[in-house]
């Protein structure tokens, strides 16, 4: 262990002005950020960009909720509403949730978890961010030149006969797709080739496994949305007649193409969240993960099976009954590995030492919300019940439970967990807990009523609705403000901590993976001063002497809410 | 509306509904049990094994193969069970009885029209007899739509240039919503029709009446069509301005087009505007909002014009 | 996870100069070997995504061929199999020359490598010229992708239902393939430029190897396109 650095940060207050060399302070120009090849800085670039996208898309969602407060026109007309929910969907799906965890935390944490200096292709990594920005710019262009009101699913022939702005939007998604492909490709090669000595596949942190599974899906599925978008582009521009029934094309073919990407894309969104939850559950329980292999392999199983279930989005589309039955069956098979994960996470707490800090609160929220998300998924997978629930608010709520209750909650948990590592600062733990509570309550109160609305027959994408749905819509709208307040609170104290936060110790949570045991907070530009040699599993707390010290009295098991022990105090405690 | 709905599900008014509802509630209660187990386990473990000291260093737990296997096997059995039931129910929903009464349904942006075997044609109102299987043979005139009747638990996408079908057997007289559930543009949310379930006798009477368009005076037929075809969703007859211009005082007035030309709203003008509304648009309104209504018969167009003249 | 470190594994960042390392070794790799195998795996993955991109179009082809085989039988007559065949030969030859360029660089024969790359570039150019003549001969008689499709002259009898799908697929697939050929040509120009500046040697020629892999892939796609579009 690097003991000289250790003492330096341990004696924090006196030496604060001589901040050690790290990836944030070694160069400070704008150019050094925009041309950086450092995976950590690229992760931060993505974090800032995605926060802006999430803010905009979130405000659009609030506009949608306000419009639905009462039936009829509230704050906008039908066309504006349709464009609003379309933009909310497109931005949240293609520009936020697909890149979110891999691009921010995957970039930042993956090489640290592997004991590597960087990802395999740093330039490709930076290119992925620029490609993403180009895609984002095209989305904005589409918004400025015309109206896109097709919904994020772009079903033909509505999309192939509407406003020309769809041309920009399809190109935007095509280009943003390359950003995903670059990221996924980079991660797969990195995981295969850049592991530190001794880091066998069985010793990989589960976050790495989940990013690996995600990357497979990114590489295999994204090209298909690429070609779909090219064909849709041509369809709108030249009427090539592949998807447009008026010219002899087949709109169902479009749906097959679209969902062949977009269902696996759901796993691009949720698999990395599984990885984060595994990290949080172990660290805050100080216990080995229950069923390491089951969790690792079920991620890969989900990734692969995920390619075979796209047709469950089309039970009432007019595809053949046989297809629907087969797709329904495979859909159930994929539900099982997800269930296994939930049980394993809960079992991980057994005989652990559970520390309820903010990241752990998010992890526990995730367990509850994802259970509901998963079980409502089983509900809509039942063929005969889906006929009733398809394209209603039940489905809307189901995928928000998975995407927001799952992925966004995990992302928030992950951001809190790695925040000290990323910024070198601690956030305010009390505010953190309050915000986690607000988000949990606000989320459930917003989306649970939507489950009932959907089962009662409220169709999705409605700018207005029939009288009897008013009450539940109002509950949902009011609660969405609680949710928004929670999220803004997070934004607030995170920003505050960046400038005024208490300095973080190297390992504030007592984690046992490499980024905590071997790097400073924030890490050195080259991550590790020495190449790590791995001799144990990622969650072997009983062997993690570098976390606890050899005789249960060491440092590092610092309390995130309080100052880390000074050398003198540590001496006294011995 | 019927009143046997529950907190979760709307009133059930078709023969398949109870079966779907039963399965819904089976999955629902199973889900609640699973959720309670997960949450209960979670809360118990969090409390039982809460951290007592920073120095806690728990011994590693050995994984239990039996436990792992049991929570693979039990959910698998459960989902296969649910799959089988869902699959059987789905077959019932897909295969219409051979003696079903057939109605042609046409979806367009943004409305429905239903054609009956005797030639009767109504818009945005579906009249069906109770206790008799009804099969809707559906197609769309433009983009994708989807026919959704929550009370009957049926839904099927409606495609252009292709037929899809849906069937149901209503069990209760009454009025039910019929929604479009596949997003189709501006007025997707207003593409709502009403299902009227009549007793067989009432239905026969209604049907005979509806087919008697031939004898109805033109303005009266026009008024009926004005409602059925969804005109009133955009065009008022009382002078208020909607998505489209009001019909009040329209006939004979001078209309300024978007290109600046002024036209007199005579019969030919109205006819043009009904059959091909996209060609010329009155100043202050959007092109492309109103679909063309060329599929109306000559008599129906005359009836609409006669009705508009009276406003 | 790490409990020990060893001195000999120490790849500290002090002194970003390349020290005793090979000048082409990037700092985040341990060895040239690791760097090369990473690059190669990356390229294979990229080709996999390319394959899936084309597979989307192959699926569209398969679907429409399955629905309208009679139409496809008529419309495929519009394509001149001789031109397609010549182009197949041209691409196969170019695959050979690109393979030779890798062979030569491994042997250290840089000049021969440059000539092989030049030949590949020229063959790719020939392919595009032939393609250009094929396209213009179609456009002349109103065979366009999409709604502008309005065949006349020798193709007048092609105006059958769903002919539009066949020609749309033809133009989109061959168009995207031609785009890949153009990208390949840019890559070859870049490789020749670097080769002229003596960047490659038997120890390090990763870009040549990867460019070659890419070109084989472009060739392979054509091998599928030719029979499917011209010979059915």
Write the layout of secondary structure elements.
The complex is a heterotrimer of chains A (574), B (311) and C (232).
Chain A: H1 3-10, H2 30-34, H3 39-67, H4 78-97, H5 100-114, H6 122-145, H7 158-161, H8 165-193, H9 206-238, H10 251-285, H11 292-305, H12 321-348, H13 358-381, H14 383-389, H15 393-423, E1 425-426, H16 429-456, H17 470-500, E2 502-503, H18 514-517, E3 533-534, H19 545-548, H20 567-573
Antiparallel strand pairs in A: 1-2
Chain B: H1 17-48, H2 65-94, E1 101-108, E2 111-115, E3 121-123, E4 125-129, E5 133-140, E6 145-149, E7 154-158, E8 164-169, E9 174-180, E10 193-198, H3 200-211, H4 218-228, E11 254-256, E12 262-264, H5 267-275, H6 298-310
Parallel strand pairs in B: 1-5, 4-10
Antiparallel strand pairs in B: 1-2, 2-3, 5-8, 6-7, 6-9, 9-10, 11-12
Helix pairs in contact in B: 1-2, 4-6
Chain C: E1 2-4, H1 32-67, H2 69-75, H3 81-107, H4 110-140, H5 163-196, H6 206-230
What does this molecule look like?
Chain A is built from 20 helices and 3 strands. Chain A has 574 residues and is mostly helical. Chain A has a single domain (36-569), classed as Cytochrome C Oxidase, Chain A (Up-down Bundle), CATH 1.20.210. In chain A, strands 1-2 form a two-stranded antiparallel sheet. With 311 residues, chain B is an alpha+beta fold. Chain B has 2 domains: 1-48 and 96-215, Immunoglobulin-like; 217-310, Cytochrome Bc1 Complex, Chain D, domain 2, CATH 1.10.760.10. Chain B has helices at 17-48, 65-94, 200-211, 218-228, 267-275, 298-310, and strands at residues 101-108, 111-115, 121-123, 125-129, 133-140, 145-149, 154-158, 164-169, 174-180, 193-198, 254-256, 262-264. A 5-stranded mixed beta sheet of chain B has the order 3-2-1-5-8. The two termini of chain B are 33 Å apart. The mean pLDDT of chain B is 88. Chain C has helices spanning 32-67, 69-75, 81-107, 110-140, 163-196, 206-230, and one strand at residues 2-4. In chain C, helix 1 packs antiparallel against helix 5 (163-196), helix 3 (81-107) packs antiparallel against helix 4 and helix 5 (163-196) runs antiparallel to helix 6 (206-230). Chain C is elongated, with a radius of gyration of 23 Å. The N and C termini of chain C lie far apart (60 Å). Classes of the chains: A mainly alpha (574), B alpha+beta (311), C mainly alpha (232). Chains in contact: A-B, A-C. Strand 3 of chain A pairs antiparallel with strand 1 of chain C.
